[in-house]
Amino acid sequence: MASVVVHPETRIATERSLEGKVALITGGSRGIGRAIAMEFAQRGAFVAVNFKASQAAAEEVRQTIRGLGTECELFQEDISNRQRARKLIEDVTSCYGRIDILVNNAGITRDRSIRKMTDDEWSEVIDTNLNSVFYCTSAAVPYMIEQKFGRIVNIASFSGQAGNFGQANYAATKGGIIAMTKVLALELAKFNITANVVAPGFTETEMLAAIPADVMEQILSKIPLKRLARPEEIARAVAFLVCDGDYVTGQQLNVNGGIYM
């Protein structure tokens, strides 16, 4: 039997694989963002949790993470506003002295068919889901370039790949995120900064909690694995790109149960 060669530079992942790294998760107080914050904390990262309004939920995340023996601070900002988004990055770097990982997760839905969608419903989703990614990333990149290291993971959706009825605004933002990420990967690779997308399918979050049972049944019938994703499954995909994806950039990692292939 041929022997297996293990290269000296091969790193073995451990439970503390993010020790000493600073990670910012936008929209980190609930759902997928909360799960990502917890995953990073368990791996030893200093976690900066951004939230807009859910103070109680954010505080619960902070206390839970600190209970794991890891540092966590909260940063309340409306990142759909360019000034507030860039202040968020300034505040995080002032607090921790650096920013190693940026997860652009914050997102909202205002679902309506294109015939009924208002200008405000369009603009609010574009500002929160897409413009915020540009504002936060463009502010964080100079710090990452200076330290010659950065990991950017943008949370998109299968809606941005395949489309989804009643989500012209949401799908446009997620498709835009995918395209933007490819450009980031090209521009930032020489600085040891990777940029990737995790594109979830339907996931057990508050966004889906209000869906009627008959509609949920229709959704599940379209998913080959016949169930929703758990937020923790999305978080582990993000952690893979951050911890073990040193040679992965400009890619889309689909965690969707097979609904889009």
Molecular structure report:
The chain has 261 residues and is an alpha/beta fold. It has one domain: NAD(P)-binding Rossmann-like Domain (Rossmann fold, 3-Layer(aba) Sandwich), CATH 3.40.50.720. Helices cover 46% and strands 14% of the residues. The protein has 9 helices and 7 strands. It has a 7-stranded parallel sheet, with helices on both faces. Helix 2 (55-67) links the parallel strand 2 and strand 3 (72-76). The longest helix has 29 residues, at 119-147.
Distinctive features:
single chain, 261 residues, alpha/beta, Rossmann fold, seven-stranded parallel sheet, 9 helices, 7 strands, globular, disordered N terminus
Give a quick rundown of the structure.
By secondary structure, the protein is α/β, with parallel strands linked by helices.
CATH class membership: Alpha Beta
Strand content: 5-15%
Separation of the first and last Cα atoms: 37 Å
CATH topology, which one?
Rossmann fold
Order of helices and strands: EHEHEHEHEHHEHHHE
DSSP strand tally:
7
The shape, in one word, is globular
Major pleated sheet = 7 strands, parallel
Number of domains: 1
Q: What structural category characterises the helix and strand content?
A: alpha/beta
Q: Which architecture does the CATH hierarchy give at level 2?
A: 3-Layer(aba) Sandwich
Largest sheet strand order: 3-2-1-4-5-6-7
Helix-residue proportion: 40-55%
CATH superfamily: NAD(P)-binding Rossmann-like Domain
What value does the Rg take, in angstroms?
18 Å
Count of helix runs: 9
Unreliable runs:
1-14
The averaged pLDDT comes out at 94
